[in-house]
User: Which sequence fits this backbone?
C-alpha cells in the first residue's frame, strides 16, 4: 500500500530511487578510568587532527561542486576544532578526572552546546551549537572507531532520507547518484535547501516524520515541484511520475532555449533578470543561465576566504574579473557585509546577544573606515572595466547613506588627484532590508541611484521572526500583504524620482511572487542563477497590465498570505 507524505518543495525536479537512510551510528560514550592520561590526550589530538583533515576534504568537494560561498561553512567547523578553550578544557577533564578522551570531549562539548542553545533569541549562537554538534560527531566517531555515514561514498542511485542534512552531508552529495533528498525538518531558506537548488537536486524538507515512515531500500518517488513523497508506490504510480519527470525534462530544455533571449513579458515589457554571486567563479553559472546582470555580488567572501584583510590590489583584481566577465552588463557590488553570522577570525568584533541586529555591515564600515576606504578605492579603480553599481547594506537612516557616500566621494577625489582613471557612470544605491528604510523610501529615493530589496532580512525583521527558527518559521511569509505593501512603497518611491528598484532576496525567483512583483513594477529580479531561465519562461506568459491589476488586489484586498497565494494561483491556472 502506497504511503503519501507532504512537505515543503525546496528544489524543483522529480526523482525515483531506493531510500538511503542517513542514520548515525551509536556514539554513546561511557566513562572509564585511565592511568595514562597523556595517552588519552594524544588520542584526542589525533582524532581532532583527523577530523580537521576530513573537513578539509569535504570543503574541497563543496567548493568544487557548490562554489566557494557554500563551502565557507566548513571553515567555521575547523575553527571550532581549533578553539584552544575547547581543547584545553577537554584535556583538563582528562587530567582531573583520570578519564577517557571520548568522555571528556563529550562533557566539554555538552557544556558549550547547552550554553549556546540557552541563548534562544540569538540565532548566531544557536548556529554555533549546531556547528559543535556536527564536529563532535566526527571526533567521537574517530575515538570510538566507528564509521559515520558518508553521502560521498554512495555509488548507486538513491534518495537520501534524514532528520536533516548538515552542511557536511550536503556538500558530499554526488548528483550522479543522489537523485533527491527528503528531511523531517527545514524550510525553503534553510542551508540544505539552498544547496539543493545550486546542485539542481530535487528536495523536500519539513515533512516532520519521513524518517519514521521509510526504511532502508524502500522505493520512493520525490515530487519536488509539489512537495509530495510516495513510499513504495505501485507500478502504475511509478509510470505516471516517470511521464511527469519526462515532461519536466522537456520543460527544462525549453527553458535552455531562452538562454540568449531578452526577458520580456507577454505584452513586450522588459525586466532585468540578474544573478546573485559570491565569487568570480560563480560567473560561469550566470552565463550558462542567461543572466542579464549581477544583481548582488556578496564581497564579504573575499574577506572570509582570507587569513587577513584583503589588500586593495587583491580586491581590485576580483572586482575587475567580475566586471570584465560580464561584458559591460551591470554588476551590483555590495560592500562588506561582515557581522551577524559572518565572523572574521582576524577582525575582533564584539560578542553580542543578537548580532543580526547589532554591529554589522555598514555599521562596521563606517566605524572602521580604513577597511571601508580600501574596499571603495579598489571598486573605484575597477570601475573602468565594466558597468559598476555600488550598494551599501543594512542602511537604516539617511545619515548613514550620506556618511558612506561622503567617504566614497573623498576616495574618488583622492584617486583622481593621483591620476587614476575612474568611470563617470557609477551608480550608488542601498539595500533595503530594514523596515525603517522601506518606510522612508521616498526620502532615500531623492539621494540614491537605485534600491535593491533584500527580502530575506526584510521579511524576518518586519515579522519579528528568525527565518531559521523552526518554531516561528510559519511567520516567514513573503506574500503577507504587509510585506507586499513595503515592497510597493519602495518601488513607487524609486519610480517617482526616476530611479530603478530591484530585489535580491529569495523572493525575486519565487514563481508565486514573480507575477505580483512584476505588477508592482519591479525593474530588476536578482536570484540564484539556476532560477533565471524558469523565471524568464514564466514572464513570457504574463501580461504586465493584468499583473498590475493583480498586484493591486493583492496589496489592497487581501489580508493574509493564503489569500494572496490563492489569488495568484487562480490567475495562473485560468
Assistant:
Amino acid at each position: 500500500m502506497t504511503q503519501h507524505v507532504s512537505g515543503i518543495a525546496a528544489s524543483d525536479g522529480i526523482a525515483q530511487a531506493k531510500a538511503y537512510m542517513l542514520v548515525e551510528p551509536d556514539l554513546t560514550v561511557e566513562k572509564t578510568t585511565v592511568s595514562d592520561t597523556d595517552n588519552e590526550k594524544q588520542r584526542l589530538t589525533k582524532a581532532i587532527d583527523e577530523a580537521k583533515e576530513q573537513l578539509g576534504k569535504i570543503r574541497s568537494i563543496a567548493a568544487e561542486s557548490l562554489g566557494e560561498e557554500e563551502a565557507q561553512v566548513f571553515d567555521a567547523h575547523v575553527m571550532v576544532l581549533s578553539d584552544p578553550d575547547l581543547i584545553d578544557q577537554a584535556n583538563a577533564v582528562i587530567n582531573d578526572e583520570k578519564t577517557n578522551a571520548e568522555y571528556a570531549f563529550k562533557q566539554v562539548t555538552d557544556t558549550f552546546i547547552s550554553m549556546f542553545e540557552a541563548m534562544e533569541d540569538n540565532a548566531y549562537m544557536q548556529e554555533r551549537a549546531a556547528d559543535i554538534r556536527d564536529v563532535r560527531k566526527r571526533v567521537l566517531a574517530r575515538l570510538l572507531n566507528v564509521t559515520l555515514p558518508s553521502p560521498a561514498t554512495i555509488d548507486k542511485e538513491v534518495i537520501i532520507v534524514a532528520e536533516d542534512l548538515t552542511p557536511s552531508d550536503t556538500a558530499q552529495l554526488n548528483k550522479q547518484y543522489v537523485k533527491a533528498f527528503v528531511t523531517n525538518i527545514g524550510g525553503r531558506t534553510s542551508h540544505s535547501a539552498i544547496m539543493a537548488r545550486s546542485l539542481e537536486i530535487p528536495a523536500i524538507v519539513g515533512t516532520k516524520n519521513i524518517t519514521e515512515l521509510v526504511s532502508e531500500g524502500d522505493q520512493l518517488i520525490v515530487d519536488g515541484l509539489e512537495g509530495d513523497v510516495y513510499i513504495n508506490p505501485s507500478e502504475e504510480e511509478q509510470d505516471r511520475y516517470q511521464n511527469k519527470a519526462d515532461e519536466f525534462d522537456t520543460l527544462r530544455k525549453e527553458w535552455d532555449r531562452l538562454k540568449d533571449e531578452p526577458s520580456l513579458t507577454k505584452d513586450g515589457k522588459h525586466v532585468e533578470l540578474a544573478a546573485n554571486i559570491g565569487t568570480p567563479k560563480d560567473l560561469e553559472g550566470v552565463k550558462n543561465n542567461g543572466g542579464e546582470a549581477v544583481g548582488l555580488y556578496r564581497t564579504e567572501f573575499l574577506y572570509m576566504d582570507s587569513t587577513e584583510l584583503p589588500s586593495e590590489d587583491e580586491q581590485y583584481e576580483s572586482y575587475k574579473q567580475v566586471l570584465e566577465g560580464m561584458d559591460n552588463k551591470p554588476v551590483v557590488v555590495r560592500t562588506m557585509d561582515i557581522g551577524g553570522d559572518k565572523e572574521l577570525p582576524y577582525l575582533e568584533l564584539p560578542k553580542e546577544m543578537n548580532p543580526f541586529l547589532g554591529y554589522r555591515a555598514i555599521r562596521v564600515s563606517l566605524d572602521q573606515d580604513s577597511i571601508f576606504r580600501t574596499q571603495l578605492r579598489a571598486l573605484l579603480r575597477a570601475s573602468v572595466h565594466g558597468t559598476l553599481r555600488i550598494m551599501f547594506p543594512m542602511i537604516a537612516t539617511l545619515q548613514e547613506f550620506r556618511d558612506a557616500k561622503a567617504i566614497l566621494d573623498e576616495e574618488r577625489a583622492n584617486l583622481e588627484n593621483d591620476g587614476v582613471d575612474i568611470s563617470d557612470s557609477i551608480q550608488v544605491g542601498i539595500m533595503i532590508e530594514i523596515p525603517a528604510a522601506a518606510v522612508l523610501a521616498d526620502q532615500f529615493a531623492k539621494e540614491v541611484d537605485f534600491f535593491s530589496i533584500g527580502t530575506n532580512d526584510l521579511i524576518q525583521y518586519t515579522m519579528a521572526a528568525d527565518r531559521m527558527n523552526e518554531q516561528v518559521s510559519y511567520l516567514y511569509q513573503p506574500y503577507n500583504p504587509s510585506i507586499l505593501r513595503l515592497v510597493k512603497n519602495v518601488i513607487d518611491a524609486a519610480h517617482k524620482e526616476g530611479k530603478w528598484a530591484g530585489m535580491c532576496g529569495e523572493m525575486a525567483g519565487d514563481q508565486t511572487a514573480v507575477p505580483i512583483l512584476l505588477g508592482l513594477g519591479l525593474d530588476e529580479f536578482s536570484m540564484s542563477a539556476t532560477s533565471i531561465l524558469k523565471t524568464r519562461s514564466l514572464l513570457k506568459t504574463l501580461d504586465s497590465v493584468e499583473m498590475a491589476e493583480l498586484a493591486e488586489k493583492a496589496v489592497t484586498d487581501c489580508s493574509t498570505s493564503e489569500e494572496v497565494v490563492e489569488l495568484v494561483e487562480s490567475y495562473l491556472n485560468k
Remarks:
- The mean pLDDT is 90.
- The chain is about 50% helix and 15% strand.
